Amino acid sequence: QVKLVESGGGLVQAGGSLRLSCVASGFTFGWWRMSWYRQAPGKERELVADINSNSDIFNYADSVRGRFTISRDNTENILYLQMNALRPEDTGVYYCRADLRIPYWGQGTQVTVSS
To answer: Which residues neighbour 49 within 8 Å (Cβ) at sequence distance 6 or greater?
Structure first.
C-alpha cells in the first residue's frame, strides 16, 4: 500500500534552516508529481510547493518562493523540502502528498519557528 513518511521537522529560530524528507513506498515514485503542503494552527492546509516526475516543473507558494526548494530523488524514492530563512509564519505541520489518481498524504511533521 502507499506509504509516505515525513521527517526533519523541529524547532528552529527565525532565519534558520531545516530540510524535510518524505520517504515513499508502495507505488512507482518516479511516475508521479509530488507536493508539500502545510497547515498552521487554525488555518486551512495550503500548498507550499510541488514538483513533477522529471524534476523540471516546479510550483511554489508566493510566501516561500526564493526561500524554499523542493527536490526529489527518484532512485531512493525520497521527496525533499529545503527551507531557508525561516519565519515564524512558516510554523505548522508539513505534509507530503503523492498526486496519484487519488491523493495520498503522509502523517506530517511539525515545524516551529521561534521569533
So the answer is: 35, 36, 58, 59, 60, 61, 64, 68, 70, 81
Overall residue count recorded for the chain in this entry: 115
Q: Which residues pair with 34 in a beta bridge?
A: 51, 98
Per-chain mean pLDDT for the chain = 97
CA angle 90, 110, 82 (to 5 degrees): 60
Nearest to 20 by CA among 4, 41, 3: 4
In 3D space, the residue among 65, 71, 59 whose CA is nearest the CA of residue 90 turns out to be 65
Gap between the Cα atoms of 73 and 75, Å rounded: 5
Q: Measuring CA to CA, which residue among 77, 35, 72 is closest to residue 55? A: 72
Cell of 53: 516526475
Residue-wise pLDDT tens digits, 20-64: 999 999 999 999 999 999 999 899 999 999 999 898 899 999 999
Share of the chain above pLDDT 90, in %: 95
